[in-house]
Predict the structure.
Amino acid sequence: DYQVCDNGTTNGLPDSKCATGTVMVTITDVNDNPVPGADNKSTSEDTTLNFPASDLTANDSAGPADEGGQTLTVSSVTATANTHGAVSLSSGTVSYVPEADYNGAASFDYQVCDNGTSNGSPDSKCATGTVNVTISETNDNPVANADSKSTNEDTSLNFPASDLTTNDSAGPANESSQTLTVTSVTANANTHGTVSMSGGTVTYSPASNYNGPASFAYQVCDNGTTNGSSDSKCAAGSVNVTVNPVNDAPTANSQSVYTNGNTPVLITLTGSDVETSSGNLTYTVTSGSGPSHGILTGVAPNLIYTPALNYCGVDSFRFTVTDTGDGSSPPLTSSEATVTINVNDTVAPTITLNGNQNSLTPANHSYHTVNVTDLVASASDSCDPNVNINSVVISQVSSDEGASASGDIVIASDCKSVQLRAERNGGGDGRVYTITFRVRDAAGNTRTAIAKVTVPQDQGNGSAVDSGPAYTVISGCP
């Protein structure tokens, strides 16, 4: 309302009059900006956060109460200096991707718009809101980098397990304060040996005589946390080992050979070496090592041993083997090996007669005893020291007169003597007894010797003619 007054007069006198009027005002609508509320989201390190864009409008308002019926829509999302990642909006879904390995506070902006009107015409208004994101820590696996070690052939490699972690990392830079520990070592197909860990020390033992590349695996673990709780992570690493070649000494092989007395035998020396083929090994008979009872001829490794005349028993000599080196190390010589030569006893013992001539006279039909020692001087054997005159026996006795001599020869049971009758055929030319002596050594070799005892035809003729065996008595002695 309003009052309007005039300045009129009444009867010549001022007489202002007033009246009340009404002003009708038409107020056209003007849309207000929406009011976004703060939003909070969370995700884990290295984990994308996806959520409906409508989540962001749930705590936003379109403006004053009279605009409560408006619809709010997120029209865009925008990264800021504190976003620590990337954010996008597609088909009504917001995707926030934190930067690799980041954890902590982050945020991004979004624009929310209404569908309000001004003076009856569409007049959408927009405002910028902020989404605060809490990114919880997630422990990353450590990174195990390859390690290199070296050792010599047939030599164990020992080193602290902590050596392996010096070039490893706990993960991203924000995990650099974590402690790394080697928890185990494991052999693989390329280990060429064994590997173990004890008391914080790693021991790698290459296979015997192996040289070249080798490797084994190890596991390294950190002491990191995820969202404040312990969450150790592990990774596998590799240790590459160079096993340097070392020349190994060759091996000379001992051997035993057998031959008979007075018989040469071929001996082929043998040996082996890891780096050198057998054809390139050098064989050397050790000076002064024998043999003591024979001689060696030929060129090693192919030798001929000839035993000394009539020797039997054991003989030997020693030899060594020398390799050619391995290109980086000088030649090496083996320890001595022994060749044992067994010379079999194949030589018969000897019997030496004393040269005595026995003549049984007169022919008086009497028995005469002839002992071994009467006709044998000695017996010996180069290989059997137990052979002597006591080893000699009478193996048989023959007479050159047949039936007339039956019963005239009686060999003692111990074969050490024989009784011969002083008898002959009266119409003949005298009788000749042939005594065969025999000696046998421990190897079974035998030797015989023959002596003769005569019975003359008469005292005037002291000789007898040997007509050859006509009657023989064989002893029972072996």
About this structure: The first helix runs from residue 372 to 375.
